[in-house]
Amino acid sequence: MDLNSLPALAVLSDNVTIVEIDQVKVVRVIHEKATAGIALHGGHVVSFKPTGQEDLIWMSDEAVFDGKAALRGGIPVCWPWFGRIAAPAHGFARNSEWTLIEHRENENGVIVELGLLPCESTLAVWPHQFQAHLLVEIGDELTVTLDVTNTDSQAWTFSGALHSYLTVGDIEQAKTTGMGPEYIDSLKGGELCQGGEVLQLTDTIDRVYTQPSECITVEDPVLNRSILVNNQGHNSAVLWNPWAEGAQAMGDMQDSGYQRFLCVESTLHAPSIEQGCTLQPGESHQLITRISTK
Fold it and tell me: According to its UniProt record, which residues of this chain constitute the active site (predicted)?
Protein backbone atom coordinates (compact mmCIF):
# COMPACT_ATOMS: atom_id res chain seq x y z
CA MET A 1 0.00 0.00 0.00
CA ASP A 2 1.53 3.30 -1.14
CA LEU A 3 0.40 5.85 1.44
CA ASN A 4 3.14 8.32 0.56
CA SER A 5 1.47 9.39 -2.67
CA LEU A 6 -1.80 10.46 -0.99
CA PRO A 7 -2.41 14.20 -0.40
CA ALA A 8 -2.50 15.28 3.24
CA LEU A 9 -5.85 16.37 4.66
CA ALA A 10 -4.11 17.68 7.76
CA VAL A 11 -0.48 18.10 8.78
CA LEU A 12 -0.03 17.28 12.47
CA SER A 13 3.78 17.37 12.63
CA ASP A 14 6.86 16.82 10.49
CA ASN A 15 6.26 13.06 10.72
CA VAL A 16 2.48 12.69 11.07
CA THR A 17 -0.30 13.62 8.64
CA ILE A 18 -3.89 12.59 8.06
CA VAL A 19 -4.78 11.15 4.66
CA GLU A 20 -7.90 9.49 3.31
CA ILE A 21 -8.47 6.23 1.46
CA ASP A 22 -11.99 6.36 0.03
CA GLN A 23 -14.15 7.03 3.12
CA VAL A 24 -11.53 6.13 5.75
CA LYS A 25 -9.15 8.57 7.41
CA VAL A 26 -5.66 7.19 8.00
CA VAL A 27 -2.92 8.47 10.31
CA ARG A 28 0.17 8.43 8.07
CA VAL A 29 3.62 8.25 9.60
CA ILE A 30 6.72 9.08 7.56
CA HIS A 31 9.91 8.80 9.59
CA GLU A 32 13.51 8.03 8.69
CA LYS A 33 13.14 4.67 10.48
CA ALA A 34 9.90 3.54 8.83
CA THR A 35 6.60 4.55 7.27
CA ALA A 36 3.22 3.36 8.51
CA GLY A 37 -0.52 3.90 8.37
CA ILE A 38 -3.22 3.45 11.00
CA ALA A 39 -6.86 3.69 9.91
CA LEU A 40 -9.19 5.39 12.39
CA HIS A 41 -11.87 2.95 11.24
CA GLY A 42 -11.09 -0.07 13.40
CA GLY A 43 -7.89 1.35 14.89
CA HIS A 44 -6.42 -0.72 12.11
CA VAL A 45 -2.72 -0.75 11.21
CA VAL A 46 -2.68 -0.93 7.39
CA SER A 47 1.05 -0.58 6.74
CA PHE A 48 4.45 -0.81 8.41
CA LYS A 49 7.41 -0.48 6.12
CA PRO A 50 10.88 -0.27 7.68
CA THR A 51 13.19 1.87 5.56
CA GLY A 52 14.59 -0.15 2.67
CA GLN A 53 12.19 -3.08 3.08
CA GLU A 54 8.93 -4.29 1.62
CA ASP A 55 5.90 -3.76 3.83
CA LEU A 56 5.75 -6.24 6.72
CA ILE A 57 1.97 -5.87 6.85
CA TRP A 58 -0.17 -7.31 4.05
CA MET A 59 -3.33 -5.56 2.86
CA SER A 60 -5.76 -6.98 0.35
CA ASP A 61 -6.00 -5.13 -2.96
CA GLU A 62 -9.76 -5.62 -2.64
CA ALA A 63 -10.11 -4.26 0.90
CA VAL A 64 -13.23 -2.09 1.26
CA PHE A 65 -12.51 1.36 2.75
CA ASP A 66 -16.14 2.46 3.15
CA GLY A 67 -16.00 3.13 6.89
CA LYS A 68 -18.44 0.27 7.50
CA ALA A 69 -16.85 -3.05 6.58
CA ALA A 70 -13.90 -4.46 8.51
CA LEU A 71 -10.71 -4.02 6.51
CA ARG A 72 -9.18 -7.14 4.95
CA GLY A 73 -5.53 -7.43 5.91
CA GLY A 74 -3.42 -5.26 8.18
CA ILE A 75 -3.82 -5.77 11.93
CA PRO A 76 -7.52 -5.96 12.80
CA VAL A 77 -8.29 -5.36 16.50
CA CYS A 78 -10.54 -8.25 17.51
CA TRP A 79 -12.25 -7.18 20.77
CA PRO A 80 -14.12 -7.66 23.12
CA TRP A 81 -14.19 -11.15 21.74
CA PHE A 82 -12.31 -13.22 19.19
CA GLY A 83 -14.00 -15.54 16.70
CA ARG A 84 -17.66 -16.25 16.11
CA ILE A 85 -18.62 -16.76 19.75
CA ALA A 86 -20.91 -13.70 19.50
CA ALA A 87 -22.09 -11.23 16.87
CA PRO A 88 -20.52 -9.44 15.13
CA ALA A 89 -17.70 -11.91 14.53
CA HIS A 90 -14.44 -10.80 16.20
CA GLY A 91 -16.24 -8.09 18.19
CA PHE A 92 -17.04 -4.47 17.41
CA ALA A 93 -13.63 -2.77 17.81
CA ARG A 94 -12.53 -3.52 14.24
CA ASN A 95 -15.70 -1.85 12.89
CA SER A 96 -15.71 1.14 15.24
CA GLU A 97 -14.37 4.64 14.67
CA TRP A 98 -11.39 5.26 16.94
CA THR A 99 -10.21 8.71 18.03
CA LEU A 100 -6.67 10.01 17.63
CA ILE A 101 -5.62 10.95 21.17
CA GLU A 102 -2.01 11.96 20.68
CA HIS A 103 1.19 11.42 18.73
CA ARG A 104 4.78 11.99 19.68
CA GLU A 105 8.06 11.45 17.92
CA ASN A 106 11.82 11.53 18.32
CA GLU A 107 14.85 10.24 16.43
CA ASN A 108 13.90 6.63 17.24
CA GLY A 109 10.40 6.71 15.79
CA VAL A 110 6.78 7.78 16.28
CA ILE A 111 4.12 6.73 18.81
CA VAL A 112 0.46 7.09 17.88
CA GLU A 113 -2.29 6.59 20.48
CA LEU A 114 -5.93 5.96 19.59
CA GLY A 115 -8.92 5.60 21.90
CA LEU A 116 -12.33 3.93 21.89
CA LEU A 117 -15.20 4.48 24.35
CA PRO A 118 -18.68 2.95 24.68
CA CYS A 119 -21.46 4.31 22.51
CA GLU A 120 -25.01 3.35 21.62
CA SER A 121 -23.90 0.78 19.05
CA THR A 122 -21.35 -0.94 21.34
CA LEU A 123 -23.75 -1.03 24.29
CA ALA A 124 -26.37 -2.68 22.07
CA VAL A 125 -24.17 -5.75 21.56
CA TRP A 126 -22.05 -5.66 24.75
CA PRO A 127 -23.66 -3.71 27.62
CA HIS A 128 -20.50 -2.77 29.54
CA GLN A 129 -18.49 0.35 30.26
CA PHE A 130 -14.87 0.30 29.14
CA GLN A 131 -11.96 2.38 27.97
CA ALA A 132 -9.74 1.06 25.17
CA HIS A 133 -6.45 2.53 24.00
CA LEU A 134 -4.35 1.40 21.09
CA LEU A 135 -0.70 2.36 21.23
CA VAL A 136 1.19 1.97 17.93
CA GLU A 137 4.97 2.39 18.19
CA ILE A 138 6.72 2.78 14.83
CA GLY A 139 10.50 2.59 14.51
CA ASP A 140 12.96 -0.16 13.62
CA GLU A 141 10.17 -2.48 14.77
CA LEU A 142 6.41 -2.23 15.14
CA THR A 143 4.78 -2.60 18.55
CA VAL A 144 0.99 -2.60 18.88
CA THR A 145 -0.55 -2.55 22.37
CA LEU A 146 -4.28 -2.92 23.03
CA ASP A 147 -4.87 -1.60 26.57
CA VAL A 148 -8.41 -2.14 27.91
CA THR A 149 -9.79 -0.97 31.26
CA ASN A 150 -13.01 -1.92 33.02
CA THR A 151 -14.72 1.40 33.87
CA ASP A 152 -17.97 -0.36 34.82
CA SER A 153 -19.30 -0.97 38.33
CA GLN A 154 -19.20 -4.73 37.84
CA ALA A 155 -16.80 -7.31 36.40
CA TRP A 156 -16.88 -8.30 32.75
CA THR A 157 -15.12 -10.92 30.65
CA PHE A 158 -13.56 -10.65 27.23
CA SER A 159 -11.28 -12.28 24.69
CA GLY A 160 -9.48 -10.79 21.73
CA ALA A 161 -6.65 -10.79 19.22
CA LEU A 162 -4.31 -8.59 17.26
CA HIS A 163 -4.96 -10.35 13.96
CA SER A 164 -1.68 -9.56 12.14
CA TYR A 165 -1.44 -10.33 8.42
CA LEU A 166 2.29 -10.70 7.70
CA THR A 167 3.63 -10.23 4.17
CA VAL A 168 5.53 -13.19 2.71
CA GLY A 169 7.00 -13.63 -0.75
CA ASP A 170 5.42 -17.06 -1.27
CA ILE A 171 3.33 -18.83 1.37
CA GLU A 172 4.46 -22.26 0.15
CA GLN A 173 8.12 -21.41 0.75
CA ALA A 174 7.71 -19.66 4.11
CA LYS A 175 8.70 -21.69 7.18
CA THR A 176 7.34 -20.92 10.65
CA THR A 177 8.88 -21.94 13.96
CA GLY A 178 8.19 -21.15 17.62
CA MET A 179 4.42 -21.68 17.49
CA GLY A 180 4.69 -24.62 19.90
CA PRO A 181 3.74 -28.31 19.66
CA GLU A 182 0.02 -28.25 20.53
CA TYR A 183 -2.87 -26.65 18.70
CA ILE A 184 -6.64 -26.60 18.50
CA ASP A 185 -7.58 -27.27 14.88
CA SER A 186 -10.63 -25.24 13.91
CA LEU A 187 -10.83 -27.18 10.63
CA LYS A 188 -11.32 -30.41 12.61
CA GLY A 189 -14.08 -29.22 14.90
CA GLY A 190 -11.73 -27.94 17.59
CA GLU A 191 -9.74 -31.16 17.88
CA LEU A 192 -6.58 -30.91 20.00
CA CYS A 193 -3.60 -31.90 17.83
CA GLN A 194 0.17 -32.21 18.02
CA GLY A 195 2.42 -30.68 15.37
CA GLY A 196 6.04 -30.49 14.34
CA GLU A 197 8.64 -27.86 15.12
CA VAL A 198 8.58 -26.41 11.58
CA LEU A 199 5.40 -25.44 9.73
CA GLN A 200 5.44 -25.15 5.93
CA LEU A 201 2.00 -24.82 4.39
CA THR A 202 0.51 -26.72 1.48
CA ASP A 203 -3.15 -26.02 2.30
CA THR A 204 -5.46 -23.90 4.42
CA ILE A 205 -4.74 -23.52 8.14
CA ASP A 206 -6.82 -22.27 11.07
CA ARG A 207 -5.12 -23.21 14.32
CA VAL A 208 -4.98 -21.94 17.89
CA TYR A 209 -1.51 -22.81 19.19
CA THR A 210 -1.79 -23.15 22.96
CA GLN A 211 1.89 -23.21 23.95
CA PRO A 212 3.68 -20.66 21.72
CA SER A 213 7.28 -19.71 22.36
CA GLU A 214 8.24 -16.19 23.34
CA CYS A 215 9.15 -15.53 19.69
CA ILE A 216 7.48 -16.95 16.57
CA THR A 217 9.65 -16.71 13.45
CA VAL A 218 8.45 -16.71 9.85
CA GLU A 219 11.42 -17.42 7.57
CA ASP A 220 10.85 -15.93 4.12
CA PRO A 221 13.45 -16.99 1.54
CA VAL A 222 11.75 -15.12 -1.30
CA LEU A 223 12.00 -11.72 0.39
CA ASN A 224 15.27 -12.75 2.03
CA ARG A 225 14.21 -11.96 5.59
CA SER A 226 12.72 -13.49 8.70
CA ILE A 227 9.79 -11.86 10.48
CA LEU A 228 9.91 -12.11 14.27
CA VAL A 229 6.67 -11.92 16.26
CA ASN A 230 6.88 -11.41 20.02
CA ASN A 231 3.57 -11.40 21.90
CA GLN A 232 2.58 -10.53 25.46
CA GLY A 233 -0.64 -10.66 27.47
CA HIS A 234 -1.87 -13.57 25.36
CA ASN A 235 -2.68 -17.22 26.06
CA SER A 236 -2.22 -18.52 22.52
CA ALA A 237 -1.15 -17.71 18.98
CA VAL A 238 -3.55 -18.16 16.08
CA LEU A 239 -2.11 -19.04 12.65
CA TRP A 240 -4.40 -18.67 9.66
CA ASN A 241 -4.36 -18.73 5.88
CA PRO A 242 -7.52 -19.42 3.81
CA TRP A 243 -5.65 -20.90 0.80
CA ALA A 244 -7.02 -20.74 -2.73
CA GLU A 245 -10.59 -21.90 -2.12
CA GLY A 246 -11.01 -19.63 0.89
CA ALA A 247 -9.58 -16.60 -0.93
CA GLN A 248 -11.90 -17.16 -3.89
CA ALA A 249 -14.90 -17.18 -1.52
CA MET A 250 -14.02 -13.75 -0.10
CA GLY A 251 -15.28 -10.67 -1.90
CA ASP A 252 -12.58 -8.49 -0.34
CA MET A 253 -9.56 -10.63 -1.24
CA GLN A 254 -8.05 -11.19 -4.65
CA ASP A 255 -7.97 -14.89 -5.64
CA SER A 256 -4.20 -15.03 -5.41
CA GLY A 257 -4.01 -13.01 -2.19
CA TYR A 258 -3.48 -16.05 0.05
CA GLN A 259 -0.06 -16.60 -1.58
CA ARG A 260 1.36 -13.43 0.00
CA PHE A 261 0.49 -13.57 3.70
CA LEU A 262 0.39 -15.59 6.88
CA CYS A 263 -1.60 -14.48 9.90
CA VAL A 264 0.29 -14.84 13.19
CA GLU A 265 -1.95 -13.44 15.90
CA SER A 266 -1.43 -12.43 19.52
CA THR A 267 -4.57 -13.98 20.97
CA LEU A 268 -6.52 -14.23 24.18
CA HIS A 269 -8.54 -17.25 23.12
CA ALA A 270 -11.72 -18.45 24.80
CA PRO A 271 -14.43 -20.87 23.59
CA SER A 272 -17.14 -18.51 24.88
CA ILE A 273 -17.37 -14.97 26.24
CA GLU A 274 -18.12 -16.36 29.71
CA GLN A 275 -14.85 -18.32 29.64
CA GLY A 276 -12.78 -15.29 28.70
CA CYS A 277 -10.44 -13.13 30.77
CA THR A 278 -12.23 -11.37 33.66
CA LEU A 279 -11.53 -7.78 34.64
CA GLN A 280 -12.84 -6.32 37.87
CA PRO A 281 -13.85 -2.63 37.98
CA GLY A 282 -10.73 -0.50 37.58
CA GLU A 283 -8.56 -3.35 36.28
CA SER A 284 -6.74 -3.25 32.95
CA HIS A 285 -5.20 -5.74 30.53
CA GLN A 286 -2.67 -5.26 27.77
CA LEU A 287 -2.48 -7.45 24.66
CA ILE A 288 0.73 -6.77 22.74
CA THR A 289 2.39 -7.82 19.51
CA ARG A 290 5.88 -6.75 18.46
CA ILE A 291 6.89 -7.34 14.83
CA SER A 292 10.43 -6.99 13.50
CA THR A 293 12.81 -8.53 10.97
CA LYS A 294 16.27 -9.99 10.82
Answer: 163, 265
- Beta-bridge mates of residue 284: 149
In a domain, 57, yes or no: no
Range of the domain at 200: 80-101+110-293
pLDDT by residue, tens only, the chain of 294 residues: 789 999 999 999 999 999 999 999 999 999 999 999 999 999 999 999 999 999 999 999 999 999 999 999 999 999 999 999 999 999 999 999 999 999 999 999 999 999 999 999 999 999 999 999 999 999 999 999 999 999 999 999 999 999 999 999 999 999 999 999 999 999 999 999 999 999 999 999 999 999 999 999 999 999 999 999 999 999 999 999 999 999 999 999 999 999 999 999 999 999 999 999 999 999 999 999 999 999
Angle 125-128-131 from CA coordinates, rounded to 5°: 110
Provide the number of structural domains found in the chain.
Answer: 1
Q: Which helix (H) or strand (E) holds 143?
A: strand 142-150
Q: What share of the chain is helix, strand, coil (3-state, %, to 5)?
A: 10, 45, 45
pTM of the model: 0.97
Distances (CA, A) of 189 to 185, 244, 266: 7, 21, 22
* Of 133, 103, 140, 96, residue with least CA distance to 115: 133
Active-site positions read 163, 265
**Does residue 46 sit within a domain?**
no
> What CATH number is attached to the domain comprising 152?
2.70.98.10
Which of 145, 162, 95, 85 is closest to 122 using CA atoms?
Answer: 95
